[in-house]
Amino acid sequence: MYDKWLADRTHWFDASGIRKVFDLAAKLENPVNLSIGQPDFDAPEIAREAAVEAISSRKNGYTPTQGAAPLRTLVQKQVDEQYGEGVREAFITSGTSGGLLLTLMTLVNPGDEVIIFDPFFVMYDALVRMLGAKPVYVSTYPDFHIDVNKVEAAITDKTKLIIMNSPANPTGTIASEAVCRDIAELADRKQVALVSDEIYKFFCYDGEFTSPAKFSKNVIVLDGYSKCYGMPGWRLGFAHGPHEIIQQMLKFQQYTFVCAPSALQFGAIAALDTDMKPYLDAYRRKRDLVYDGLKDYYDIVKSEGAFYSFPKAPTASASEFVNRAILERQLLIIPGNVFSACDTHFRISFAASDETIVKGVEILVDMAKNG
Ligand code: PMP
């Protein structure tokens, strides 16, 4: 009976790939877990205390739709300093995910095409489908860098927007300044919206982060505090872009999320003053542990950012390889076909203790040598 109740959109996307991994993982007692998409450090103590204090001092009501004034003002100031005053409008979202949903609801009609890069962050594909639009994959294999000529070739009359993510989940690549400029210019020339998911911008190991928003005022930027401040459960992010678009996004926020969690917005203000650089250095070392440990045994691109690496499996089917890693070696990694049309690679998250990473690398080296 329930089948008849379900809206069509429940059939337009599925979550079975990742669920399969979780089901397998649930069978393990003490896995070597390199599958986690969140940092292994906690929110700064000062932020935790500020959030508790906000609850105790009864900041438990709704905040304005666009965010609690002190946090929103701070974010707007940061954006103004970077892009110039009056250029971009900012507001607080319920995580970067919240910003993504609002952006797509604001910009995408059923039947539209949305360009995403394959491999992609799973939510892009699901949200695009959920809204009745069509994801168009532009492959970044084998080095995972964006080829702007391929993007141009993929644009049709139906293309509504392009979603890019640098540093990228699941590949760890970063878009160069030239790519950011070229893609922003292309989007403007073709009058296609460009969305830049910058949630991993703190995690850049070898150079500076560049946003395509540096090259066009039209780019919609989504960002969040989950990863850089170790607070993914707080559900806090922010979006900035052209006033006209942001106003429409706020309209959707008003009738969906209402506002981001109040007390946690006050906690986040305290986090913004915290120096997180020691974690960046630690994560660079973790990146090196993975890359140096695997490079002689796997076809692997050195991650430049985020906390993921995306090596090629040594066998034809990456999902079969991952199943064996999980069931026979207790190593939890994610098959690439969760993030991609291809079943050739797998994702390692190095948001884990050094000890876990070393163990995981040992297992993978042994599997490459001995099957
Ligand atoms: N974008 C990317 C690329 C991500 O990897 C994630 C989290 N895994 C998100 C957005 C969502 O982050 P948030 O917790 O801010 O909703």
Name the features:
Aspartate Aminotransferase, domain 1, binds 4'-deoxy-4'-aminopyridoxal-5'-phosphate, 12 strands, 2 domains, seven-stranded mixed sheet, 371 residues, three-stranded antiparallel sheet, Aspartate Aminotransferase, domain 2, globular, alpha/beta
Could you give the distance between the termini?
47 Å
> What string, H for helix and E for strand, traces the elements in order?
HHEHHEHEHEHEHEEEHHHEHEEEH
Count up the domains.
2
Output the structural class: alpha/beta
Strand residues, percent:
5-15%
**What would you call the shape?**
globular
Question: Which helices and strands occur, and which strands form pairs?
Answer:
Blueprint: H1 2-5, H2 16-26, E1 32-33, H3 45-56, H4 69-83, E2 89-93, H5 95-107, E3 113-118, H6 122-130, E4 134-139, H7 148-154, E5 159-165, H8 177-190, E6 193-197, E7 220-224, E8 237-241, H9 243-254, H10 262-271, H11 277-294, E9 308-309, H12 318-329, E10 331-332, E11 334-335, E12 346-349, H13 354-370
Parallel strand pairs: 1-10, 3-4, 3-5, 5-6, 6-7
Antiparallel strand pairs: 2-8, 7-8, 9-12, 11-12
Helix pairs in contact: 3-10, 5-6, 5-9, 11-13
The chain binds 4'-deoxy-4'-aminopyridoxal-5'-phosphate.
4'-deoxy-4'-aminopyridoxal-5'-phosphate (PMP) binds at residues 37, 95-97, 121, 165, 169, 197, 199, 224, 226, 232, 237.
